[in-house]
Amino acid sequence: VKSTPNILSWKPAAGSSSCCVELPTRRRKLPYDEILGVWQVPHTRSCDIGLCPCEYSLVVYAVGRKKGQPCKWHLEEHRLVAGSPEQAEDWIAIINASLQMCHDRPKNLLVLINPFSGAKRSRVVWEQKARPVFEKAHIKYTLVETLHADHARDFVANMKPDELAQYQGVVAVGGDGVFQECVMGLMEQRALGGSHLAAASRIRVGHIPGGSTDAVACSLHGTRCAETAALHVALGDRLSLDVANITCRPSAQEAQGTEAEAAAAAAMPPHSGPQMPAAGKADRRRDKREGEEELLRHSTSTGGSDAEEHTMMGGMGHKQNSSSTPAAAAKGSDFRGGAQGATDGKAGKGE
Fold it and tell me: Fewer beta carbons within 10 angstroms: which end of the chain, N or C?
């Protein structure tokens, strides 16, 4: 067994290849931030088949993962063999000293269970999934079962500062409702200020899912697995989570001022000045048609039929197709009179 500040490693014991238990041939490595604890086996036992003695002196409990499911964790144990009880105690002391360097790990927790949440399996979830993890990690806990709605909130809110200060976290076992009650209870403690604020500010909130939806656990861990949540709590993992939405409302003085302004605006008479009616499509078409007729009358009185045609076409926004020819150009550009303009155009074409 070798230990560095961050890694614990070991290799199979000599002669393990003749044992009925298949041990890995490569050296195993475990980071300390994934190790929960180490326990010494108090007695020697033989393997189940009884062919050879298998003396396991200590057990290391750590996080295990399955391929293809990185978010789902399980409790995994690694059995190590020591040559003597003294050697086993030395290894345990070295491993525990390295685990003490892992910060933010809880030592004492307040656990509140809602036995009525979801399918009413919160007790089973605690006994089979969460409690074994806490015990393997040497975590002490105080267990409280809620009896009615807002029981968890009232229990946390009414705790004395010295009582709350002995815990590093509050763990809610059940659905999202009991988790919210724990958060609200801590917020009420903070609102009291003083020693209540100091004690409540140190507390973190954990959630062991046992409800029907478990949205909080899915947001925190990416899974509804209760064992995964318990492992995260035991390792001291933390993650910020939005738990409230604060709406700012105006003060009483500002509200009175706003109401006075609204009343004054309502008492004012409506605007009686001249108003321009909005022009619709029919009005615009009528104005355009009248403008074209006025332009046509003006062209008729000053020019001939050719100038009249050109003006109408230009007023409508179209181009004359025959304007590309020299005669059409001469015809379109001459506004001196009808007969004279036509004669000039024919003369130009003949030339």
Answer: C
Report the SS3 class of residue 168: coil
Name the one residue in this structure whose structure tokens are 């910020």: 240
Nearest to 168 by CA among 106, 113, 104: 106
- What is the distance between the alpha carbons of residues 317 and 45, in angstroms, rounded to a whole number? 105
Q: Rounded distance, CA 17 to CA 21, Å?
A: 8
Q: By the 8 A CB rule, do 80 and 2 touch? A: no
Collapse the DSSP code of 101 into the 3-class scheme (helix H, G, I; strand E, B; otherwise coil) and give the result. coil
- How is the beta sheet containing 204-209 ordered, strand by strand? 140-145, 108-113, 169-174, 204-209
**Radius of gyration, CA atoms only, the chain:** 44
Angle at 122 between CA 59 and CA 180, to 5 degrees: 110
Contacts of 41 (CB under 8 A, 6+ apart): 56, 57, 58, 59, 79
Regions of the chain with pLDDT less than 50? 15-23, 49-53, 276, 302-351
Residue whose structure tokens are 């003060």: 251
Q: Euclidean distance between the first and final Cα of the chain, in Å?
A: 116
Q: Which residues contact 29 (CB under 8 A, 6 or more apart)?
A: 7, 8, 9
Element of type H or E holding 289: helix 281-302
Longest dimension (CA), the chain: 132
Type of residue numbered 185 = G
Enumerate the active-site residues.
176
- Helix axis angle for 326-333 and 338-350, nearest 10°, is 160
Query: 3-class SS at 110?
Result: strand
Element (H, E) at 208: strand 204-209
CA 136 vs CA 36, 129, 132: distances in Å: 7, 12, 6
Nearest to 94 by CA among 190, 165, 9, 197: 9
State how beta strands 204-209 and 7-10 pair: unpaired
